[in-house]
Amino acid sequence: LQLNHSGHYLCVGWVESDWRQSAWVTVTVHRVPVSGVSLSAQPPGGQVALGDRLVLSCTVATGTGPLSFSWHREGSGALLGTGPHLELHHIGDNDSGQYRCRVSDGDTVAESDPLNVTVLGEWEPRAGSDT
After folding, report:
1. Which residues form the Ig-like domain (predicted)?
2. Could you read off the pLDDT of 74-97 as tens digits, one per residue?
């Protein structure tokens, strides 16, 4: 539904050799503010080997569209991306840090908790690994 779908509706149908009409109903479409923005990472936990690829995904629990996304890294004023996913190819040391996603519906803005991305060198094991 879109906001412009608000209005008065009825239905008409052919019943027993005659056209019949329902009562009018009023439909009001309300905008639901954006909330529940969260991040996930592939590989999980945001730990990625030097030179590998990292994909961050931003999800929204509630909010009516159209939604716009923006990606930010703490300490950098640069806009990193504008879609629900942020893909970083060939991760380097300078890609470590805390990433956030901001979502707007044009009226309200919500932001995810930060996700810490750690770039691991060849000698650093991933969390939970024995190597």
Report:
1. 33-118
2. 988 889 999 999 999 999 988 999
Domain residue extents for the chain: 35-120
**Tens digit of pLDDT for each residue in 110-125?**
999 999 999 988 554 5
- The total of other beta-carbon atoms located within 10 Å of residue 46's CB is 21
Collapsed DSSP state (helix, strand, coil) of residue 45: helix
- Is residue 33 reached through a cis peptide bond, with omega within 30 degrees of 0 on the bond before it? no
First CA to last CA across the chain, in angstroms? 52
3-state SS assignment for residue 33? coil
Rounded Cα distance between 109 and 100, Å, is: 13
CB proximity list for 70: less than 8 A, separation 6 or greater: 79, 81, 82, 101, 102, 104
